[in-house]
Specification:
Keywords: DNA-binding, Phosphoprotein, Transcription, Transcription regulation. Pfam families: HTH_18, Response_reg. The protein is of the alpha/beta class and about 525 residues long. It has 22 helices and ten strands. The strands form two sheets. It has a five-stranded parallel sheet with strand order 2-1-3-4-5, sandwiched between helices. It has a five-stranded mixed sheet with strand order 7-8-6-9-10, sandwiched between helices. Helix 1 links the parallel strand 1 and strand 2. Helix 2 packs parallel to helix 3 and helix 15 runs antiparallel to helix 16. The protein is elongated and about 125 Å long. It starts with a strand and ends with a helix.
């Protein structure tokens, strides 16, 4: 292994990285692809760990480009050689990178086997550490590189590799164990702790089971993945091993789930098992947040797909301001939607974000004040995207609905206050007339019973009580003025019956009109 020339690939295009990795049998040519990165920043983090001899890097990349990466490498790791990948249009840029320490360059249109290999070998021959170890020689492929190719979907057309795999994995059945780390912010120490716990548990089982071999796999996606090779007679032990492993990982308190794929019978089925079993089950875990172990045969029967969300009906209810009906329908659909664990996670999250977007637009078009919703919706978009389970994502939508209801209520309150002011102003203008609820309702085109209820709901007293208070306040002013008789004042404030006026006045003030006048004129 020490005779390999270690190569790190840096390019922001995954297809370019994959193409180079599986370009040829690198080990046979004396090279080992030890890692890959999508930008210079990622590359620098990997260099300290992987200690490559050569870094093969693109020039134009986000976050940190190839030129800055080269400067950083030569500053921190002067013994590492850098080869630049570029297009014809970048040639002037390439020329300037030689000042930073680039050893050579390869034009992307010339990515053919002979040219690339020739450049790499020419650079490798100038690396002192490789010469001190004895020049790297042609060797067979490593188990890691063969498995990585199989996992990426490349055919294994190498009899030597086939034999090495057969020797390494002698048993009749295979299975994948995995822990999904996508969307999780974990330190390397935490990831290593999970991986080590899984390995330790399998080591314990291997001590009691001669027919068990395992191998830690490299995966493109952020995850930990182990390949198990065991005899068919031992498949019944998988649930027990999975529970033991999940229990040990739970003690780390990192809230992850162990996924056990469906077994397969040949190593050539690795890619299919990875994509059709393990990855799918990892996505299913999104809908089972309380499970820390997911076994291929323990999922409930897949429910029937929910009826498609009727956006037209939802929108129509909104436009008619039937908000309770619209939200009730939405939440009912959400409850059904999140129980279907076969729903694509991206589809589920997109639905929630689209609903938030549509609600905001609809309310804005209806002249509701949506400034806060417009600002907060981006927070909800990001939180939904980062949510790790369906319940958490659904709660975010429910929180947004709460915000939308506040927006709706605010306008309703403002509208209610405006309407109430119109009613009160009308009473103050017409209190001296034979005003009653029926006449007022007719003027404002209300149903009398609705007006009575509306008045009481939006004011601290009913219509009749408020009308009396307005009339009696005016009557008190006239009584204190002392110019008009009590009988005249009664008519002036809207009471046609003098006796009734006196009765109402005493009830509300505790004094008769005449007594009130006597006391105020002393």
């Amino acid at each position: 292994m020490s005779n390999y020339c270690r190569l790190l690939i840096v390019d922001d295009e995954a297809l370019i990285r994959q193409g180079i990795k599986h370009y040829m049998n690198w080990e046979q040519e004396g090279f080992q692809i030890v890692g890959e990165a999508s930008n210079g920043k990622e590359a620098l983090e990997l260099i300290a760990e992987l200690q490559p001899h050569i870094v093969l890097t693109d020039l134009v990349m986000p976050i940190m480009d190839g030129e800055e990466l080269t400067r950083q490498i030569k500053l921190k790791y002067p013994e590492i050689e850098v080869i630049v990948l570029s297009s014809f249009g970048d040639f002037d840029h390439v020329r300037s990178t030689f000042q930073s320490g680039v050893r050579d360059y390869i034009l992307k249109p010339k990515l053919d086997t002979g040219h690339m290999l020739g450049v790499l070998k020419a650079v490798a021959e100038k690396i002192p550490s490789l010469q001190n170890e004895g020049h790297f020689a042609s060797q067979g492929p490593t188990i890691d590189s063969v498995l990585e190719k199989l996992l990426s979907g490349y055919d294994m057309n190498d009899s030597q590799a086939e034999q090495e795999l057969a020797d390494h994995f002698p048993h009749s059945a295979f299975c994948l164990l995995g822990v999904d780390l996508r969307g999780r912010s974990m330190s390397k120490e935490q990831v290593n702790a999970i991986r080590q716990t899984m390995v330790d548990e399998l080591d314990k089982q291997a001590q009691h089971a001669d027919q068990l071999v395992y191998h830690v796999l490299k995966a493109e996606a952020p995850m930990i993945m182990l390949l198990l090779n065991l005899d068919y007679t031992m498949l019944s032990l998988l649930p027990y091993w999975g529970r033991t492993m999940a229990s040990s990982i739970d003690q780390l308190k990192l809230d992850v789930a162990v996924v056990v794929s469906e077994p397969f019978s040949a190593i050539t089925g690795l890619e299919l098992s990875y994509k059709s079993s393990l990855l799918k089950m990892m996505d299913y875990a999104f809908y089972f947040p309380d499970r820390h172990l997911l076994l291929f045969h323990e999922f409930p029967e897949s429910p029937e797909a929910a009826e498609p969300f009727n956006l037209n009906s939802f929108t129509e209810s909104f436009k008619r301001e039937r908000f309770d009906t619209a939200f009730e329908y939405l939440l009912e659909h959400l409850d059904t939607f999140k129980t279907n664990y076969t729903t694509d996670v991206f589809e589920f999250k997109s639905f929630l974000s689209n609903v938030i977007f549509n609600i905001t637009v609809l309310l804005g078009n209806m002249n509701y004040s949506t400034q806060q919703l417009e600002t907060k919706k981006y927070h909800y978009f990001k939180a939904i995207e980062e949510s790790r389970n369906a319940n958490a994502a659904a709660e975010l939508l429910q929180d947004f609905i709460g915000e939308a209801k506040l927006c709706i209520a605010e306008k309703a309150e403002q509208s209610g206050n405006a309407n109430m002011k119109r009613l009160l102003d009308y009473i103050h203008e017409h209190y001296a007339e034979p005003l009653n609820l029926t006449e007022m309702a007719k003027h404002f085109h209300f149903n009398p019973s609705y007006l009575s209820s509306y008045f009481s709901t939006h004011h601290n007293e009913g219509f009749v009580d408020y009308l009396h208070r307005v009339r009696l306040t005016k009557a008190s002013e006239l009584l204190r003025a002392g110019e008009a008789s009590i009988s005249e004042i009664s008519g002036m404030v809207g009471y046609s019956d003098h006796s009734y006026f006196c009765k109402v006045f005493k009830k509300h003030t505790g004094l008769s009109p005449s007594r009130y006048r006597q006391q105020t004129l002393r």
